[in-house]
Amino acid sequence: MAHLDAVTDLLDPPVFVVTARAGDGTRAGCLVGFASQCSIDPEGFMVWLSRRNHTCEVACRSAHLAVHVLSRARLETARLFGEETGHSVDKFARTRWADGPHGTPLLADADAWFVGRVEERTDGGDHVGFRLTPVAGGPAGPTAQDGPRPLRLGDVLHFSPGHPA
């Protein structure tokens, strides 16, 4: 990682909460630091989930994922999805949410969200990449343009990851 440090130490990218529901009804969600738009036409977004994360296990069995943008005012929601593991905690019992398109869990605290159809899964070493095509979306609270700034990596660096070591 030392070869990347000179670049990544200068960055402060947005973080997202990604949620999934597998065909058997299992729900999962986690805080994600590796995600970005990857195509304009057709629209595409790439999300990278740690293989150690319960959400990755569920997402690998899901046809759709939801990507949520949180503001800095929602730090406790980010902490729940970043520091707890779905291996032992039902995160959805601790937050407000509703079924969204394709049964994907949508967080009430999100400032904006989209649901994406999983087009492809890619091996990324210790992460799995999910290339998504957006199929639905909207603001759940203030829009990013009018509301507070989105949560960024620098806001959550002090979190202890919830997945098993």
TrEMBL record:
Q: Which UniProt keywords apply?
A: Oxidoreductase
Q: Which residues form the signal peptide?
A: none
Q: Which residue intervals define the domain Flavin reductase like in the entry?
A: 11-160
The UniProt entry, under Pfam families, shows:
Flavin_Reduct
Keyword Oxidoreductase in record:
yes
User: Which PANTHER family does the record cross-reference, listed alphabetically?
Assistant: FLAVIN REDUCTASE, POSSIBLE OXIDOREDUCTASE
Q: Which Gene3D superfamilies match?
A: Electron Transport, Fmn-binding Protein, Chain A (2.30.110.10)
Species assigned in the record: Streptomyces gulbargensis
Q: What InterPro entries does the annotation carry?
A: Flavin_Rdtase-like_dom (IPR002563), NADH-dep_flavin_reductase (IPR050268), Split_barrel_FMN-bd (IPR012349)
Q: Which domain of life is it from?
A: Bacteria
Report what the protein is called. Answer: Flavin reductase family protein
Tell whether Oxidoreductase is among the UniProt keywords: yes
Where are the coiled-coil regions? none
Organism placement in taxonomy: Bacteria, Bacillati, Actinomycetota, Actinomycetes, Kitasatosporales
